Amino acid sequence: MRTLDDLDVGGKRVFVRVDFNVPLKDGVITDDTRIRAALPTLEALLHRNASLVVAAHLGRPKGVDPALSLAPVAERLGELLDRKVTLSPEVVGDRSWELANDLLPGQVLMLENVRFEAGETKNDDRLATLYAALADVYVNDAFGAAHRAHASTEGVAHHLPSAAGLLLQREVETLRGILENPAHPLVAIVGGAKVTDKIGVIDAFLDRADAVLIGGAMCFPFFKAQGHPVGKSLCEEEGIAPAARALEDAERKGCRLLLPLDLLCGDDFSADTTVTPLNGVDVPHGLMGLDIGPQTASAYSEVVLGAGTVFWNGPMGAFELPPFALGTRAVAEAVAATDAVTVVGGGDSAAALAQFGLADRVTHLSTGGGASLELIEGKTLPGVEVLGG
Length: 389
Description:
The chain is an alpha/beta fold. The protein folds into two domains: 166 residues, Rossmann fold (3-Layer(aba) Sandwich), CATH 3.40.50.1260; 196 residues, Rossmann fold. Helix content is 35%, strand content 16%. It has 13 helices and 17 strands. The strands form four sheets. It has a six-stranded parallel β-sheet with strand order 5-6-4-1-7-8. A six-stranded parallel β-sheet has the order 11-10-9-15-16-17, sandwiched between helices. Strands 13-12-14 form a three-stranded antiparallel β-sheet. A hairpin with a 2-residue loop joins β2 and β3.
């Protein structure tokens, strides 16, 4: 994969695709983590006397939507870079071309939300050509969007000398590293709601890991496959057959696939529900499992603390409801405390780490939930492949 070291950027305009899809509330950024994550790449390019044309998306607009303008993002980026960031009033067109053409070394232009252009998500080559006309070279640092073949993540790279930014490079090297050359024991913690969303990840680790720990609502298809009653628990019917196959594969391949030993249940999905501890996993009629229990939390933590490498994606329960956050907290604390190399695959796991104040205590916190999972599964990421990756 081509990197910044392979590009001559001195005195040139660099089209930099970043992942600034940040959460907003009433037009105010509530978490600028993704902006901060791109700073090393942007600062490295500026230090090398480049000017920057920064491109990003925000949300999923259907055409131009002022509520999803990148104006607050441009303002915050300017504060973090300690320099003016000019926001183009359009994505492509005469005005964006003029603003880009007038850039001097060290100056920064941000295009409006690239998804305001219908051709962006269609990977329209005409749009990619217009992007390329704004700059001399292309850098992709948007790992969170690298699994999408869009005009600004894949198409434009065919028209300019191109390379990976520092963030994208680190993401790819770290995630590939835990698959290709991990310190053992390799432990994967996989949680969330649906087996079908994560079965590719589970399969990948059954071939490589020493243990796979299952949590969240996805444990219920496994239990149902074993004949356990699941009560009112969220149980994805389409996940039962893949879960049954994974159990067989784990035994055949010699990988420990661990399921919860006990559960915390509620009458309904609510913070106000009555919490019923369950010593075992047979969920009575009328109850739903909403978290792993204390025995499971202790057992999982012990496995994590003895690991050489840990990959975690997906919560252990409904951690957004305070009574059912204990299992996810216990696993998060074990991941933070272990001496292992720890890689957290973005999404809800990253949110949980932030909620518990542990985000700075892991080796690598991925910025791309979907992209990280697809890379683990062995899928080709268009935004990486086009860079020679």
